[in-house]
Design a protein that fits this description.
about 30% strand; Beta-Lactamase; single chain; about 120 residues
């Protein structure tokens, strides 16, 4: 049986979250901040994550454009309690990851970039 695009994205998110215990939540959101898919632990609110991250993405894009730079491809915000990664998925949206503090940032970047590319292919199909 063929999976829908939403099912394929959800499976990618669940697999990545299950693979890395530092990942607390993953959300795919439109540029407008609407949830496309999510895989969360605890009581995280995917609507809030999507909306706030879309605002950050929009502000970052405007900032980069102001300095004649191309659109950013990723954003990393860090606090003592954890990290927030935002990866641009073409013109469609964002892959957002909320993680615990970790020393494996390089591995997370690799896994998140790969997942963002796979999601981009699904959304463009």
């Amino acid at each position: 049986m063929l999976q829908s695009r939403a099912e394929r994205i959800k499976e990618l998110l669940d697999n990545l979250r299950n693979m890395d215990p530092d990942i607390e939540g993953l959300v795919v959101a439109s540029r407008e901040g609407l949830v496309i898919s999510s895989s969360l632990t605890g009581e995280m609110d995917d609507d809030k994550i999507a909306a706030f991250s879309a605002s950050m993405g929009d502000a970052s894009t405007r900032t980069f454009n102001e300095f004649d730079k191309r659109e950013p491809t990723e954003i990393l915000a860090r606090s003592p309690e954890g990290l927030l990664f935002i990866f641009y998925i073409g013109n469609t949206g964002f892959l957002i990851a909320v993680t615990r503090p970790t020393k494996k940032i390089g591995l997370l970047f690799i896994d998140l970039r790969k997942t963002a590319e796979e999601i981009k292919k699904i959304l463009e199909s």
